[in-house]
Amino acid sequence: MAGKLRVGMIGCGGNARGHANRLSKIPGVEIVAINDVSDDAIAAMQNTVPGGDGVPVYKDYAKMIREVEMDAIEISTPHTLHFEQIMAGLENGLHVLCEKPMVCSVDHAKKVCRKAKSSKQHVMISYQRHFMGPYVYAHSAVAKGQMGAPTFLTAWQSQNWLAITAKWRGDPKLSGGGQLNDSGSHMIDVLLWVTDLQPTEVFAFVDNRSAKVDAVSAISVKFSNGASGNISIIGDCVGPQFKVYEEILVWCKNGQLVIRDNQLYRRDGDAEMFQVPPEGLPKDKNPDQAFVDLIQGNAPNIVPPECGLRVIQLTEGAWKSAETGKPVKVKK
User: Fold this and answer.
1) Among 221-230, 232-241, 302-311, which stretch is predicted with the lowest mean pLDDT?
2) Which helix (H) or strand (E) holds 118?
3) Which of 172, 283, 299, 310 is least surrounded, with the fewest CB atoms within 10 Å of its CB?
4) Rounded distance, CA 38 to CA 43, Å?
5) Which of 75, 67, 66, 100 lies closest to 20 in space, CA to CA?
6) Rounded distance, CA 31 to CA 250, Å?
7) Which residues contact 204 (CB under 8 A, 6 or more apart)?
């Protein structure tokens, strides 16, 4: 791509400012416009972006897309807004990096996948674990058959998530769901990505803990290769609001992988489990650098919209199971 890569920011909250800060450090990238409905968020973004006072500001993202020449957008907004914003970007010939979850329904996910496939633009989801050494290593080990086929999976995540539902995350019209659809979507995504398994059936118990959205979820899953597993999301954990604790375990035919606090442990056959040292892991990358590399043709898209489809397929199935009290076939 000749010249600078021009990026527009949809959303100026704390997460978006993290993206903007990383983009500002990538040579050949320029943030050319910012959008948010909050004056405070806009002001904070202007203090983040180098020369931010001179960057055009918009309250209407659609107007920003129409009026400012750009190559790509990055979306960091409440979840239920993502679908409309992704589609608007693609319809205007822009590459899209979207925060998780990609969308909040299987039908919307399928529409994004179809639109992305028929266009010349890229859609990437900002699931950062795809670019972190322990998860990349685990994905590669399973994909290369080093561990044998996965036979059982388990993952848990705990967070004082209820403490942050006072804002938009507690409003289903904006969040589209609770912790399972928020930070919990990271767990679902990375579990499916590391193992490359397709969920076929799900049974779930969900408790809102007095919130308007799900806070605690206990989920059992069957997969297409015959494997099974459990996913536990605990949103009423005592502790700092944004501190997340989690663990992923993958039992395979010939070994076991454990990721705990971003540390990777491996067992081969009957040998003792060992920690894979940092020097034995791929180097970390961030989604913004990966997005730029993708657009410039220097790297593949390892978080395409199909990842978002798989996440919402399992999530939607869990919600339906909890509502009906019965196992549910995962929607294709």
Assistant:
1) 232-241
2) helix 106-118
3) 283
4) 9
5) 75
6) 40
7) 217, 218, 219, 220, 317, 318, 319, 321, 322
* pLDDT tens sequence across 9-45: 999 999 999 999 999 999 999 999 999 999 999 999 9
Side by side, the strands of the sheet bearing 263-268 are 274-275, 263-268, 255-260, 244-252, 150-159, 228-234, 216-223, 199-207, 328-329
Domains of the chain by start residue, with CATH = 5-127 (3.40.50.720), 129-269+303-329 (3.30.360.10)
What sign results for the dihedral spanned by CA atoms 248, 252, 257, 258? positive
Which pair of structure tokens corresponds to residue 44? Answer: 């904070």
Q: Which residues contact 171 (CB under 8 A, 6 or more apart)?
A: 212
What radius of gyration, in Å, describes the C-alpha atoms of the chain?
A: 20
The 10 Å Cβ neighbour count of residue 212 is 13
Please name the residue that has the structure tokens 């992988």.
257
pLDDT in tens, 179-204: 999 999 999 999 999 999 999 999 99
